[in-house]
């Protein structure tokens, strides 16, 4: 039995997507198809004055003999695409004022800078609005992964091309166990 800590169905499906991505990237890294190491999820990067940013997944990679930090922002969607604009130009998150963030690309880039990640990946099980891809290309350093790439990656590790079925099979008990431990430690 999995305890959902009062999460909505959408949050549970989002957690399943994050766990599926964690499994996908770990599996591809073990097969030497990706150069990611120490892949983890839901890490908080704290800074001064109690401010923090949460990363869905983070990893390390080696570039020119130097170990660098990367991050992955996961956006599960039951519709056909993820839009560029955030809901109502989200400026406050978790009680923190984040100035000037009104779109998904700026949000991910701000999070990457805050966490000192030199590589950022924005991923969805469907597709992003065209403007998301254009803006990511203009900025540079923000990689976009959508459904077609995820299907190819999943097939490369010998799994099905039916992403939703694969995602829904994800075991989130580890996810909630880790969240629970972090939450209890944070309160004490």
Verbal overview:
The protein is α/β, with parallel strands linked by helices and 188 residues long. It contains 6 helices and 9 strands. Strands 1-2-3-7-9 form a 5-stranded mixed sheet, with helices on both faces. It has a two-stranded parallel sheet with strand order 4-8. The protein has a two-stranded antiparallel sheet with strand order 5-6. Strand 1 (36-46) and strand 2 form a beta hairpin. It is globular.
How would you briefly describe this protein structure?
This protein is an alpha/beta fold. The protein has one domain (9-182): Trna Endonuclease, Chain: A, domain 1 (3-Layer(aba) Sandwich). The protein has helices at residues 9-30, 104-114, 130-139, 147-156, 163-168, 173-187, and strands at 36-46, 52-63, 66-75, 81-82, 92-93, 96-97, 119-124, 127-128, 142-145.
